[in-house]
Amino acid sequence: MFFRQAGIFHINYAADRALFPIPADRWMVGTLLALAATAPLFMNTLYLSSYMLPWLVWTAGALGLNLVLGWAGQFHLGYAAVMGIGAYAAVHGVRHGIPWEIAVILGGLTASVIGIGFAFAALRVKGLYLALSTLALQFVMDWTISHVPAISGGTQATLQAPDIRLLGWPVTSDAGLYYVALVWCLLVTTFMLNLRRTALGRALVAVREKDYAAAVIGVNSFYYKLVAFATSSFIAGVTGAILVNTFYHAVTPEQFSVDVSIQALAMVIVGGLGSIIGSYFGAGFILLMPGAMNTFISWAAAQFGLSLGIETLAHLPQALYGALIIGFLLVEPLGLGKIYNNVRDYLLVWPFGYVKK
Whole-angstrom Cα distance, residue 24 to residue 20? Predict the structure, then answer.
């Protein structure tokens, strides 16, 4: 019905390897892009700047973490520190007269250099040992950012992020900032969609499955781990810079603490390792669901005439939110992206139930 493949004939390899070979997928993507492009025209400014914008930025960040975690299979608990390096580098670059576009790229390159430092830990240890190593590096970066005045200005300092100027034109409206986040998210998504079809993507998957087996067939795991961490860190650095300039409008060390690294990791795990659409779902779930749970609990209490104390209203939504995460992972350990793929696979053959026998 929706994803029917009858009558679709691929007469060359390019058509068969297209990103969206089924017309229904192309229509869905086109519709979503049209809605995203016109969102400032029909969406409330508060929702646009408070929900849509951070969701898009964090989706790009989750995709970058998914590159090293889902594709290359390397634990990374220091992702927020890399984002912070990119944010501080970009802010300092603009404050010293560098154009904003170049400063953002400079922030990504600076974060990429730091990311290679994380990669050297990955070359020596694996699994939980790698997770602890990257967590230790996160704490090192937290201390460095906080206690080096040349970077952050001090432990309690807040650096104001300069206004965005694209090609000399200031971008200050909510719609303009939203489009900056949208374009970056689409660029990262396009890169990730094409990555899995390249030799680099296949090599990363080989390293993820068995690095020594990949070495037997000629895949240099040393090189590809470095590439994975460097590329992921570049995405993280640019994402951190865009997050600061479009959403926070200031940068502090607390914005990129270890809690933020765990939050980014939760986005990837809940969305699904190696899943691009899962990164969208995971980022949306982790960012938006707590607020939705608060609204739902307050509404339910009012409907049933319940009087809930302030302490209960503060903790009950979080408890239900955590239970919801556990429930999702119990139903489908591979995340929300796999649930979407299961529904899509069902619609590919619906209503012909005999194919399940």
Answer: 9
Does residue 38 lie within any of the structural domains?
no
User: In Å, how far are 38, 61, 199, 279 from 193, measured between CA atoms?
Assistant: 23, 15, 13, 12
Cα dihedral 130, 132, 136, 142 in deg (nearest 10): 100
Its pTM stands at 0.88
- Residue 22 placed within a domain: no
Residues 155-198: tens digit of each pLDDT: 667 778 888 888 778 888 888 899 999 999 999 999 999 988 88
Q: Yes or no: say if 252 and 158 are a contact pair by the CB < 8 Å rule.
A: yes
CATH number at residue 326: 1.10.3470
Task: Give domain status of residue 343, yes or no.
Answer: yes
Write out the residue range of the structural domain in which residue 264 sits.
43-356
Q: 301-330: per-residue pLDDT in tens?
A: 777 777 777 777 667 777 777 787 788 778
Q: How many domains does the chain have?
A: 1
3-state helix, strand, coil in the chain (%, to 5): 75, 5, 20
